[in-house]
């Protein structure tokens, strides 16, 4: 296999995955982020010679699932093989960086490899091909738009803007085209210059290695065997050999893509001593076409099957390809491109996953499985008996699946496929279905009917009995009602079924049937022109149920104020400068914590976590673990030389555990595999304790709170409620959120040989906190510990407190063993242990006049803090302080409590309480609007702050920028005319509804304490004129280093190319504050500015003496004259305080204002939604770097959209987190980005307080994602009005397909059976 051009023999254990394998050249570009192939960070390109077509096939795969032995004869290209900053960049790498498609950079190599592979196959791809190529890659930072933008520069122009180059754009459809405050010439819409890009030259790409080509042309027929410590990998060269091996090893599974077996071996501990790899057997890849049907080899990948079906559909008349079209529809959304490239058709069928997307269609399509063994061949039907695994209908141990025969459909036969998942692509289906009906020619009488469902049982379920009873019936409403009744009876899902969502799944069973019923009627309409009198056709409004939401490529415009034309060219402030590490991100040369090469005698650490929610530890038996090879030690609470955390928050527990996932001890071993093997051998005996509290409701019942109540009040609330026209009360539930930073928690502790010194390399937002925690844990002075942060692969608040705990445990291991310790959490451990955003339960009571003016608002909210205090007190304080959002209400009472529960402690998360709390406030507004019969935007406008005023906590501010953002958003989005269009659409469509919403925002920036706003910097000028800048902020992807260099460049009046930032280190800038609260660039920028001004003042006499000299001349002269060329800069911080006794203060330095408008369309039958458009107007004042700031706004908006729509954490009744990876926890993917996505920075806005009048924008966009939530709620409310159901309903976030579908109640939700909650134990429990 090759990476660049080095050829390597596979001499490693056969089950080693490609990503784990130590290559001779250390290549760290390919990133490990999930271990299940679902995030795309580890994407590489594999090239193989295809014996059928005699061509080289290039395809993207996820390296975390690929066993090294499966790469025999393949060329592997990693990101390092594509291009390098040391030699030459590939256009893909250059463009993704210069288009600002990289922030933290951890996902970038995977993105690069997906686009690069696409270009190797299609040098001028279509936009649809680009979307498909990136469908399996996740990014948590950018919001995807700039990544797509970079890929689009390679695409064939299809529907791009026709007015390019004119400065106008077809997307500018404001009701009033002139920009408020400033002419359009001041406004720029270009964040990068396309004409600077180097062209794509396919002739420069790496060739397929000639030695591999020679191997492929004379294929090795002998069986290849790789022996490992526990596993033997056998790769036969011929079918005969394979069949012999199958007789010899009947239990050995066949493995091709490893997309099913791999995850099962990893997560469920499945173990197979012998694996058979049949990839070299050409018979398994054969495709044959006959007049009756299509036979596809079981070894074909799903991507190949997709191409084969698409080709066959293009060749045959439509009536013959019904089954093929249904299969193709599901293949487009099944997993991501990389998994489709790896997974085989045979593997998919034989695995019989309960939610398989293909098996229901193959079953109803009468597919036949062609089996082969030494005995000969035989055929078995792919039917309900095979799917249920009945021995009589299954493969015998010595048989293998050779191919699958799929017959053509015929005239009067209709086949359809349906699926509903948490999101549109790269998500496992909640329910899917294949349905087929054959009608008697020329009539609507059912001759044959077949229906199969996935996701509703342990395997694909066939509704055979129901179908039999419907034979001979006419295809009409009577049949439909009977069919629904029969199906709900036959496809019964118990209340405690795994996966939960039982009522939703029952509803989908009949909703899908209704869709199929309408589809067939629609087709009949085309076929039976003659019978139009006797057949009943659906009314036009019913047809809205038929169309699925298409996958469309997002478009958009980004507007910002251009810099003054007199600004010197070398002054980069205000310009859209690329992230300083952008190119290194794109080439994989940017070093993250785990990319640091192995240190001499380094050991690995793995953590042992509690399996009980609240229990006493009776004993810990380490004996078996310590006997395993490679295991050196196990670290427990007894080994801690200093302080073991706080009294109520121990680093390692002594005798009691408070949640599932609490760290109990840590294994230290020579390799990570040995350490992980050892943790399974540690036996812990528990004794369960009472009470066990998981939900906020239980915590309130048990009076279980982490801190005192926080309360703010103004006016006389009780009196106001007496005098209003109407009062509404309601509840709001907001689920938690996982940070899902792409780089999991990582720390490397290196003990020095003397003075108890330690070097700690850690992925953290707060290196000083890690340093202090390690100091107190080891009982050594802080000055012996140095924390280094080069860059962090995403933080979002999740790397403020947690890294200190992990760093301290690793440091105890390092001190005890005397060895360097590396601790890298797997994704599932990271999600289990670290906690996330606080779930919230809120109650409101709002009093208002009939005209919509709100006179009184009383909100009480509770957050689920988990088992320890962590940041919960600050979160509840900030939440309460921010609750009023943009509204001036005379009489208010806000109360908040943090609940203590037996769940992992929740912690800081972008927005810090604001995204949860303010959802209550905005829900009040919609409730008032519904009661008054007015539009929500009118209520918002009526109650918004209008003039200079004071907040509930008596801080004065001017709402002028808020009102400008609101008005500009209304104008730019043509809101009022679109509201009318939405209403028009909704009148015509019964099963699809559109919703639109506009949300204002007043977001507070900073910490509520002056000491947290201080910052320091250290700037050195070296004798060659180069400048080294260091400051106290961590680079998390938010571009802080880029902005600091822009500040230094302006202050020293020299180009950025003279500057460098090496890392953030506690040795250069001590006592730093966490990089958080949107304030990092603000305060560190002031410190860098201060240092540069000190240096420039020192240089002034020299410059005066020689004004014509160069920078280098001045520095040389300064050195000769013994002038210090190093300066510490310091910023004492913005004043901020809050007195909770009085309920007043000036807690925040300033506000960020914004508004967002969103339009969506929902499918009332399935709960799916499509984001049609989103527009954001944000008051950034004078942006330091519009590209970075717009990137922050877009990224946080998409992350907020995830919080409010798809990101759902599920816990078992025992408090175990189920959603521990990208398969179960769905962050937004590339197909979730609104079809049109526009961002405008408010022009001509200034603030005297901050550096160069800029604002911190890291978090504010998060809440604006709620515009999508309220647009969905608007569409749901319309559906409920039309169905005569109460319009007012309990607000629950996220607005998942389940919530939307069940809220749009109709005859199908009415007909499903409902279980009495007392009669079963639910699979999951709501914790908010």
UniProtKB/TrEMBL annotation:
Per UniProt, FAD binds at 254-261, 357, 401, 419
Q: Which residues form the active site?
A: 1259
Quote the CDD domains the UniProt record gives.
fer2
Which reaction does this enzyme catalyse, per its entry?
an aldehyde + O2 + H2O = a carboxylate + H2O2 + H(+)
Q: Which domain of life is it from?
A: Eukaryota
Query: Where is the FAD-binding PCMH-type domain positioned along the sequence?
Result: 226-411
Where along the chain is Mo-molybdopterin bound?
A: 765, 796, 910, 1077
Gene Ontology CC annotations of this record: cytoplasm
Which sites bind [2Fe-2S] cluster 1?
34, 39, 42, 64
What Enzyme Commission number(s) apply to this enzyme? Answer: 1.2.3.1
> For this UniProt entry, what is the primary localization, expressed as one broad class?
cytoplasm
Cite the entry's keywords alphabetically: 2Fe-2S, Cytoplasm, FAD, Flavoprotein, Iron, Iron-sulfur, Metal-binding, Molybdenum, Oxidoreductase
Transmembrane segments annotated in the record for this chain: none
Q: Bound how, and how many: what does the cofactor note say?
A: Binds 2 [2Fe-2S] clusters.
Q: Which residues are involved in binding substrate?
A: 912
Q: Does the keyword Kinase apply?
A: no
Localization, per the record, is:
Cytoplasm
In which family does this protein belong, per the annotation?
A: Belongs to the xanthine dehydrogenase family.
Its name, as the record gives it, is: aldehyde oxidase
Organism annotation: Rhinolophus ferrumequinum (Greater horseshoe bat)
């Amino acid at each position: 296999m090759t990476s660049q051009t080095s050829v390597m023999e596979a001499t490693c254990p056969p089950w080693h995955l490609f990503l784990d394998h130590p290559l001779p050249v250390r290549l760290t570009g390919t990133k490990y982020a999930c271990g299940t192939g679902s995030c795309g960070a580890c994407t590489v390109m594999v090239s193989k010679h295809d014996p059928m077509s005699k061509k080289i096939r290039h395809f993207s795969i996820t390296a975390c699932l690929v066993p090294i032995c499966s790469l025999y004869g393949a060329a592997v290209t990693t990101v390092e093989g594509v291009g390098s900053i040391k030699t030459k960049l590939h256009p893909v790498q250059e463009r993704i960086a210069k288009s600002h498609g990289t922030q933290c950079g951890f996902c970038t190599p995977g993105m690069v490899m997906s686009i690069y592979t696409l270009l190797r196959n299609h040098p001028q791809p279509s936009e649809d091909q680009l979307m498909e190529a990136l469908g399996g890659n996740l990014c948590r930072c950018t919001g995807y738009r700039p990544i797509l933008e970079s890929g689009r520069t390679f695409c064939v122009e299809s529907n791009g803007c026709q007015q390019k180059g004119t400065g106008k754009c077809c997307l500018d459809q404001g009701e009033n085209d002139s920009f408020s405050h400033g002419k359009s010439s001041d406004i720029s819409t270009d964040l990068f210059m396309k004409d600077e890009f180097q062209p794509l030259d396919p002739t420069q790409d790496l060739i397929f290695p000639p030695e591999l080509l020679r191997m492929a042309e004379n294929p090795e027929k002998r069986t290849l065997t790789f022996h490992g410590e526990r596993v033997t990998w056998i790769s036969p060269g011929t079918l005969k050999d394979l069949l012999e091996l199958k007789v010899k090893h009947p239990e050995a599974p066949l493995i091709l893509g490893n997309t099913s077996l791999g995850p099962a071996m990893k997560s469920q501990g499945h173990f197979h001593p012998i694996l058979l790899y049949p990839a070299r057997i050409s018979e398994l890849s054969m495709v044959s076409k006959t007049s009756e049907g299509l036979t596809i080899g079981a070894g074909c990948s799903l991507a190949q099957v997709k191409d084969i079906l698409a080709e066959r559909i293009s060749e045959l008349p439509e009536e013959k390809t019904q089954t093929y079209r249904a299969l193709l529809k599901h293949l487009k959304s099944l997993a991501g491109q990389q998994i489709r490239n790896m997974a085989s058709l045979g593997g998919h069928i034989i695995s019989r996953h309960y939610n398989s997307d293909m098996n229901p269609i193959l079953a109803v399509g009468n597919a036949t499985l062609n089996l082969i063994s030494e005995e000969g061949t035989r055929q078995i039907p792919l039917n309900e008996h095979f799917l249920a695994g009945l021995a009589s209908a299954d493969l015998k141990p010595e048989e293998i699946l050779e191919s699958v025969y799929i017959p053509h459909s015929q005239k009067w036969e209709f086949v359809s496929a349906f699926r509903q998942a948490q999101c549109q692509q790269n998500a496992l289906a909640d329910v899917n279905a294949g349905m087929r009906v054959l009608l008697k020619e020329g009539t609507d009488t059912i001759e044959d009917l077949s229906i199969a469902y996935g996701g509703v049982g342990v395997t694909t379920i066939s509704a055979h009995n129901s179908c039999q009873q419907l034979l001979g019936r006419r295809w009409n409403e009577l049949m439909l009602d009977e069919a629904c009744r029969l199906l709900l009876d036959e496809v019964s899902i118990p209340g405690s079924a795994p996966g939960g969502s039982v009522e939703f799944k029952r509803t989908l069973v009949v909703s899908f049937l209704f869709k199929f019923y309408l589809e067939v009627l629609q087709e009949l309409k085309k076929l039976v022109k003659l019978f139009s009198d006797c057949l009943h056709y659906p009314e036009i409004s019913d047809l809205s149920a038929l169309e699925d939401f298409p996958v469309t490529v997002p478009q958009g415009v980004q507007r910002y104020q251009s810099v003054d034309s007199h600004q010197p060219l070398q002054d980069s402030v205000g310009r859209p400068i690329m992230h300083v590490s952008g190119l290194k991100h794109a080439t994989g040369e940017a070093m993250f914590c785990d990319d640091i090469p192995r240190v001499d005698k380094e050991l690995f650490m793995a953590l042992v976590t509690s399996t009980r929610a609240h229990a006493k530890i009776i004993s810990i038996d380490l004996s078996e673990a310590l006997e395993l090879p490679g295991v050196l030690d196990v670290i427990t609470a007894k080994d801690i030389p200093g302080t073991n955390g706080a009294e109520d928050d121990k680093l390692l527990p002594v005798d009691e555990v408070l949640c599932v996932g609490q760290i109990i001890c840590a294994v230290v071993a020579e390799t990570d595999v040995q350490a992980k093997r050892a943790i399974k051998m540690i036996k812990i005996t528990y004794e369960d304790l009472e009470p066990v509290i998981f939900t906020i409701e239980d915590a309130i019942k048990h009076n279980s709170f982490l801190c005192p109540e926080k309360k703010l009040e103004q006016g006389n609330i009780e009196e106001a409620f007496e005098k209003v026209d109407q009062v509404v009360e309601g509840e709001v539930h907001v689920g938690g959120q996982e940070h899902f930073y792409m780089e999991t928690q990582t720390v490397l502790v290196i003990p020095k040989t003397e003075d108890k010194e330690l070097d700690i390399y850690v992925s953290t937002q707060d290196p000083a906190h890690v340093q202090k925690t390690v100091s107190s844990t080891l009982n050594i002075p802080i000055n012996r510990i140095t924390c280094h942060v080069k860059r962090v692969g995403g933080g979002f608040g999740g790397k403020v407190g947690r890294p200190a705990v992990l760093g301290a445990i690793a440091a105890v291991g390092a001190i005890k063993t005397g060895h360097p310790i590396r601790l890298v959490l797997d994704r599932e451990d990271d999600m289990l242990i670290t906690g996330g955003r606080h779930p919230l339960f809120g109650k409101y009571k709002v009093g208002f006049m009939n005209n919509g003016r709100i006179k009184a608002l009383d909100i009480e909210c509770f957050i689920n803090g988990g088992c320890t205090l962590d940041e919960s007190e600050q979160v509840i304080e900030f939440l309460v302080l921010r609750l009023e959002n943009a509204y001036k209400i005379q009489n208010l009472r806000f109360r908040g409590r943090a609940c203590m529960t037996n769940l992992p402690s929740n912690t800081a998360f972008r927005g810090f309480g604001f995204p949860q709390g303010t959802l209550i406030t905005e829900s009040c507004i919609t409730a008032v609007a519904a009661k008054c019969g007015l539009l929500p935007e009118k209520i918002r406008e009526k109650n918004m702050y209008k003039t200079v005023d004071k907040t509930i906590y008596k801080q004065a501010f001017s709402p002028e920028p808020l009102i400008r953002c609101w008005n500009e958003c209304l104008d730019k989005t043509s809101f009022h005319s679109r509201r009318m269009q939405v209403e028009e659409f909704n009148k015509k469509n019964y099963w699809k509804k559109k919703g639109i919403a506009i949300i204002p925002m007043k977001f507070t920036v900073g910490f509520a304490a002056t000491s947290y706003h201080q910052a320091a910097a250290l700037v050195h000028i070296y004798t060659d004129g180069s400048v080294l800048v260091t400051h106290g902020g961590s680079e998390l992807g938010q571009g802080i280093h880029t902005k600091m260099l822009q500040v230094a460049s302006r202050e020293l009046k020299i180009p950025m190319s003279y500057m460098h930032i090496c890392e953030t280190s506690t040795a250069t800038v001590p006592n730093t504050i966490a990089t958080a609260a949107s304030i990092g660039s603000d305060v560190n920028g002031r410190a860098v500015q201060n240092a540069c001004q000190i240096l420039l003042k020192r240089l002034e006499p020299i410059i005066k003496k020689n004004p014509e000299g160069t920078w280098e001349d001045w520095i040389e002269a300064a050195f000769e004259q013994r002038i210090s060329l190093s300066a510490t800069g310091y910023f004492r911080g913005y004043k901020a305080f809050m007195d909770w006794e009085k309920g007043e203060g000036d807690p925040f330095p300033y506000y960020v204002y914004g508004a967002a408008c969103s339009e969506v369309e929902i499918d009332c039958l399935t709960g799916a939604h499509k984001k049609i458009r989103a527009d954001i107007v944000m008051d950034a004042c004078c942006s330091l770097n519009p590209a970075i700031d717009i990137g922050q706004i877009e990224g946080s908006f998409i992350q907020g959209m995830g919080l409010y729509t798809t990101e759902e954490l599920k816990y078992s009744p025992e408090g175990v987190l189920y959603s521990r990876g990208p398969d179960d926890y769905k962050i937004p993917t590339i197909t979730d980005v609104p079809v049109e996505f526009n961002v405008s920075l408010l022009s001509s806005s200034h603030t005297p307080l901050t550096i160069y009048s800029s604002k911190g924008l890291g978090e504010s966009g998060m809440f604006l994602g709620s515009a999508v939530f309220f647009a969905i709620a608007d569409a749901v409310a319309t559906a409920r009005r039309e169905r005569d159901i109460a319009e007012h309903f309990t607000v629950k976030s996220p607005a998942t397909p389940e919530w939307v579908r069940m809220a749009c109640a109709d005859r199908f939700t009415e007909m499903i059976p409902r279980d009495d909650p007392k009669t079963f134990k639910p699979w999951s429990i709501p914790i908010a």
